[in-house]
Design a protein that fits this description.
By secondary structure, the protein is α/β, with parallel strands linked by helices. The chain has two domains: about 140 residues, 3-Layer(aba) Sandwich (Rossmann fold), CATH 3.40.50; about 160 residues, Tubulin/FtsZ, C-terminal domain (60s Ribosomal Protein L30, Chain: A), CATH 3.30.1330. The protein is built from 14 helices and 14 strands. The strands form three sheets. A seven-stranded parallel β-sheet has the order 5-4-3-6-7-8-9, sandwiched between helices. A five-stranded mixed β-sheet has the order 12-11-13-10-14, sandwiched between helices. It has a two-stranded antiparallel ribbon with strand order 1-2. Helix 1 packs across helix 6. The chain is globular. The N and C termini lie far apart (about 60 Å).
Length: about 400
């Protein structure tokens, strides 16, 4: 593009129109569970990222459909896996530090996916995350925690690994497997349950990647993601779609009540990124009301909210709201986990039928369902997360929606 400078007596100057290169994003699955999760994310068709798997088990590594593979710790494990020993997993990663640095080199953002409680994921994931941060990559971990029936030893290993990982990443999203017992239909298979967990991990990665790679009316990019997530600790991510009257407000209400990741409420968050996708029908006052609802849900006086807006006419009367919350004080983060755990225990109590609302489970999404609920235009739509009724009062926003809903079987 050529522009004329009015103060330069006709001098022209050129503006480079080439788009800057997109930041390189790598999603790395560590251990068997992490590799399976990354295979699921890759199969979903997520674009704009590079997929890699790292494992101590050569047989599992060869079986993975992910093309970029790295075997670690061959001297320590002989390629036979870590034997559910996190220390072996850690030593395996330390043995191949140089090769891991080569794998991570050039990445602007690294997602580490792992299942905690076993050997490689628990022991190697914190090492890999630390190396990524040494290279100045924005580093996020999305991990699962073991079922209670797996026993105290494995749970204790997972908790130690989680603490090490929390100290090694900028942002951390945890998914307790016990929650799948509550959300999955009674007849769900183990494979379907694991697909649910993988689908939750995919959603977490995809929402962040979409924000980075999209261009909006009010634009947010990698620098905004980096600002909110750098050193942010516990991260709560919710996303929802609603349609009809006040769709933005309804979607915002659902997004701040996300039952599937640990830290189910955004209460106490000091940094919020709100990303709204809708058609040109999206109104100023509706957007204001949605952001005000999210702000008040934090119950934080000094919360900073950055918002982005993408216009997509294919949304018609639907609006999608994605909320990323970080910056929880340590006490607030501990309270979030306690709230989440006690809340899920209370789900065993039957819900009142008239208070139930429809939900599309992550299992259905993993199986290829559209993620949309048919019905009148005023009904809310969710992908993966439970919705909230229109009549709910703002005072109840710090109570996760899953406390008030039951999955319809």
């Amino acid at each position: 593009m050529t522009l004329l400078d009015p103060k330069s007596n006709g001098l022209k100057f050129e503006i480079q129109e080439d788009s800057p290169p997109r930041p390189k994003i790598r999603v790395i699955g560590v251990g068997g569970a992490g590799a399976n999760a990354v295979a699921h994310i890759m199969a979903s068709g997520l674009e704009g990222v590079e997929f890699c798997v790292v494992n101590t088990d050569l047989q599992a590594l060869r079986a993975s459909p992910v093309p970029n593979k790295l075997a670690i710790g061959l001297k320590v494990t002989g390629g036979q896996g870590a034997g559910s020993d996190p220390e072996v997993g850690r030593q395996a990663a330390l043995e191949d530090t140089e090769r891991l640095l080569e794998l991570l080199e050039g990445a602007a953002m690294v997602f580490v996916a792992a299942g905690l409680g076993c050997g490689t994921g628990t022991g190697a994931a914190p090492v890999i995350a630390s190396l990524a941060r040494e290279l100045n990559a924005l580093t996020a971990a999305v991990v699962t925690k073991p079922f209670s029936f797996e026993g105290g030893r494995r749970i204790a290993q997972a908790e130690r690994g989680l603490a090490e990982l929390a100290a090694s990443v900028d942002a951390l999203v945890t998914i307790p497997n016990d929650r799948l017992l509550t959300l999955a239909p009674r007849g769900a298979s183990l494979l379907e349950a694991f697909r649910m967990a993988h689908e939750i991990m995919r959603q977490a990665v995809q929402e962040i990647v979409d924000i980075i790679n999209s261009t909006g009316l009010v634009n947010r990019d990698f620098s905004d993601i980096r600002a909110i997530m750098r050193g942010g600790g516990l991260a709560v991510l919710g996303t929802a779609v609603a349609r009809g009257e006040n769709a933005a407000v309804q979607a915002a209400r659902q997004a701040v009540n996300c039952p599937l990741v640990e830290g189910a409420s955004i209460r106490g968050a000091r940094n919020i990124l709100v990303y709204v996708t809708g058609s040109s029908r999206l109104g100023l006052h509706e957007l204001n009301d949605a952001c005000q609802l999210i702000r008040e849900a934090t119950r934080s006086e000094d919360v900073q909210i950055n918002f982005g807006v993408v216009l997509n006419e294919s949304m018609a009367d639907a609006v999608k709201v994605t909320v990323i919350a970080t910056g929880f004080a340590p006490a607030a983060a501990d309270g979030q986990q306690a709230l989440a755990e006690s809340a899920w225990e209370s789900l065993a109590a039957p819900a009142e039928p008239e208070r139930e609302s429809m939900m599309v489970s992550a299992a259905a999404a993993a199986a290829g369902a559209s993620g949309q609920i048919s019905g009148p235009a005023s009904e809310q739509e969710r992908v993966g997360f439970a919705g909230a009724d229109e009549e709910e009062e703002l005072e109840d926003l710090d109570t996760p929606a899953f406390l008030r809903r039951r999955l319809l079987h």
